Amino acid sequence: MKRLLALLLFTTTSLFAADADVERIAGSILVHGHSMQYARELTDQFGSRLIGSSGFDRAAEWTAAQFRAAGVTSVRLEEVRISRGWTRGTASAHIVAPLQQTLHLTPFGWTSPTPPGGIRADVVPVSDLAVDSIRGRAKELEGRVVLLSIATVFRNGYFAGYKPYLAALDALKAAGARGVLVGFGNADNALGMLEATWGVDTTPPLPIAQLGMEDAKMLERLAANGRVTIDYSYDSAFTPAHTLHNVVAEIRGSERPDEWVAVGGHLDSWDVGSGAQDNGSGCAMVLESARAIAALGRPPRRSIRFILWAGEEEGFLGSQAYTQTHKAELANCIAALNADAGSGHPKGWATVGRTDVADAFRPIAKALLTDLGAADVSDSTQFVLQSDHAFFLLNGIPTLELMPDLSKYFDVHHRSADTIDKIDPHNLAGNAATLAVAAYAVADREQPIAPHASREDVMKILEKTHTDTFVKEMGWLP
Ligand SMILES: [Zn+2]
Q1: What's the 278 CA to ligand 1 centre distance in angstroms?
Q2: How far is ligand 1, taken at its centre, from the CA of residue 188, in Å?
């Protein structure tokens, strides 16, 4: 019996960080923590943090100062060059025939403005973006504005295959279309910010703007019954090449400092609202985790690098640059934890296709995160390549995506409604404690949580999620 007890105790301490350490970390976050203060200051001091803007640059400096004030001694700003920034100006749009009505419209990011005088043209709904189909409709499309649904764009572009999407835009231009409007999915004509193309280097061949959901549906109905003419214009401008920064703060490990765990969230946001849930909340959790673990005064066995990423919204620019610059150190990266799904009630984690990581992490979560409500661990691929964990996943590194309750997240995600009043302080602190405890447990564990996945196993995850073509087209495979 005694031997069994001793064995159990040994197993417990070797699997998980010591209870007292975990209690102090979580306690310091849940009682007199700084999470809400970080989130409030970040969003209300700097507003939105579009890359290339002073808001982003000032926020990067401020977060570096917060890491230092929290007692983390190794804090660096690491450069990420972008070829150009972009700014959004004013927009106006209305139906001129067969009736008169104002429309809700704004450009997609990194698109050219409408020509001087705007665009006055009839609207043609299009649901098939195959190049042959577009060519076959050339007569009908010439001089018109093309109306797409966001579902059509996602089905044909982004993760489903990027080249066919670009080819479709070129074909629309060749057919003589004058502009593209994309109807969004949320009620009350809420507009959700997105880019027309990946990265910041490609200019779409036509002006592309988004239209509110009810407006788009009305145009579809009117077009089905005859001619519908709209008049619209928007301003936008490209800004010069710019140097962004990833903010990196490291707590060196006590036994194996060269082995490290990445704990990140993106600092940038879209230019509407103030990027409070997406991703001021994740930044606050990362800052708070660093503060609480530094305050513990007992570093984990391995190092933890707390990283606030630049340029996530334009295609993971900061995390891509970091995994390239630090390529030689990736073999020693034990795991990547990412906070970019808002701060709904704590719930758990997704391991993005890695069942072995989920199986290894589940007992840790059960032991340490149950009382925080965050012990739910799945291998969900819901956000397979949709945040900064992507380049760690592609490099075979075990990935843990923080997954709070998402039921209210998409009401504000990328919208002007994404402001600090949507963040519940209790839930934010609960998620920060969840992130900090998980980071500490993974970094302090005797053994790595799971081995690196082989290239074949990574490909299987991509194939299963139909993202393999996209990743190959983007040249993202390491
Ligand atoms: Zn985000």
Answers
A1: 5
A2: 23
